[in-house]
Structure formats: C-alpha cells, structure tokens
C-alpha cells in the first residue's frame, strides 16, 4: 500500500516534466519557424511558386521550362544604393549576402547571347516587341516580379544555366530551387506594366571580342542588371535611356552586348557602347553610349518598326560586312518589315516571323545551337505570347500571360 502511494506521485511528476519539456520544445520550434519566416518569407514563397510547365526533350535539344513568381523586392533597391557592381563576382557576393544571408553560395553569369528582335504594330494599333533567344539547350524560367513601391511589375525570361544550374537536368533539388532566387538579376528580355520592353544581344566588338567596362565616377551595373533597372523603373524609352545614362556598364563573360528598348507609344531605340570602329574598339573602358532611335535608324527611318541582331547598327562601325554577325537574319527580318510596313494581323503572325529565323530552321553551322525561346510582348495590352524551343503552335509549349 505504501509502495503504491510512493510510485504514483513520481510518475505524475515525471509526466508533468515531460509535458513541460515538450511545450518548451514546441515553443522553440515555433519561435525558430517564426524567425525563419520573418527573415526568408519572400524567398520561401518564391521557391514554392517554382513549377515546371514544359518537359525536356533531349532528342530535340529541348530543356525544361519553368515559371516562378518572385515575392518582395529581391533587394534591388539596396543593390542600387550600394552603387551596383562592376563585375559578376561582386554581384554574386551581393546576392549571396542578401538573399541567403551568407548561408548558401549563389551563382550568376552570362554567356553567348545570340538572338533577333523587332518592333512593330498589330492591325488594331497595338505595339509589339518580338524576340528570339538563340543559344544551346538549356532550362528556362519565365519570371514574374511585383516589387511594389515606385517600381513596376514585370515578366521576363531567364536562362537557368546562368544561375549555375545544369542544363542537362531538371530543377528538382531544394538547392537548385534556391539558386533560382537569383533569377531577378538575370533577365534576357522582358516587359513591365508600363508597356516598356527590353532585350539584350551579343555584339562581338573589337578585333577580338572585348567587353564594355566603363570606368567613370558613375555607379556600376552588369549587363543583365541594367535590363532589370529598365524593367523595374522605366515608364518609357526616354526614361530608360535617362536611367541607363547614369551608370557605367560592365559586360560579363568576356563578351560585349547591346540592347533594344521599346514602349507602348511605338518609340524604340538600340543602345550601344562603342569607341571608334570594330577594328579599333579594343578598350572597353573608353566606350561611350550611342543611341539609335527607330526614326533615325539608317535602315528604317521610321518609328513604325526597328530590328536588331548581333552587330553594331551605329553607322560606319564596320569596314567589312562579313564582320557583321547575324546580318543574314537581320536582312530577312528587315525585308519582312518593309514588306508589311511593320504591321502584323496579330501576335501569332509576328511569331511566324520569329520562327523564320529560328536556329533550327535557319542556316545553322552549329549543330548544337537552337532557339531556346521566342516571345511577342504586346506593349499596349501588356500581354505575352511565349513559345519554347521552336515548338510554334504546339500544345504544351505555347503560353499566354497578362500583366
């Protein structure tokens, strides 16, 4: 009898201690979870939004296509406030420090960005911006951002291998999905909710390709972060030019680039950084920004349309026509624009022109090359017609969006 009365209180006390320990542990877990959510809620929401929308087909050189909504402001204001970055290494350090708080390394780089673009008008008066991205098989992500404040919402396309992801594999691991958080800093083309669109294209400048690497007192931007600047802040072509003029450009990956920008008024411009002619333009630090507006473009002379591929359009830059990369594609696009006055029945007809200069159908000496994506941005309605891997009009490869 006495033994029973002694054991029962001990069991009750042990049970009480266990419940207290469990409650404390649960509280600590909740505090830890709350802390993680408070610090990384935007990043967690972004990673959870990543989804595959088109499967890979290695026989057709197709990578997978993904879609992602990046939450929050992705620290781009802070990036600009610190003066940007003058090289990929500094950009990577910034992204790592801010997005993962230094806990996980991030990657970002750029490479040979081929491509073709044009502007035009639909029969109903809507202004459009079309673009092919030519490269090698890779995984692609259609990225939506809406940072709020005085910044615009936008849609853009990102090549995921530039974020350090293996183009031969799908994005499945948590680490690979976390790497996709850097996508906001690597757009290749896009459109914002003000109807401003922008694309980036290689230019192969100099006797041997030399990247632009300006060195003045201005703050610094790398190639794709300059495009992000336009998407986030520009209300028009003129405002985009004004913004870009405030920064030094530092091209990445040992190559050189130029840009095309267009807005819903029909105005467009090609922005190039040059010094002298192709044979003498060998010091990237001495290049200056030159702007060719559509109505002053020697090839068009009209605000109705403009086109660009991979050579400098500024007059008298080349001594030899064979140095003008992508001239054949350019002439084909320009010829079509001249035939129709830059007017298309609809976005699908504009997509047909992009298909005509796709790398699988065009004279292509690179057996591994392909057109990774084709897109027509409607700058008036703020809608998107997007096709992956030259599967034009094929179900499962064509996507439509509206901002």
From TrEMBL:
Superkingdom of origin organism: Bacteria
InterPro entries reported for this sequence: CBAH/NAAA_C, Ntn_hydrolases_N, Peptidase_C59
Name of a matching Pfam family: CBAH
Hydrolase is among the record's keywords: yes
SUPFAM superfamilies: N-terminal nucleophile aminohydrolases (Ntn hydrolases)
GO function term, MF aspect, one: hydrolase activity
Domain Choloylglycine hydrolase/NAAA C-terminal: 115-272
Keywords: Hydrolase
Family: Belongs to the peptidase C59 family.
Protein name: Linear amide C-N hydrolase
Organism: Candidatus Merdiplasma excrementigallinarum
Phylogenetic lineage: Bacteria, Bacillati, Bacillota, Clostridia, Lachnospirales
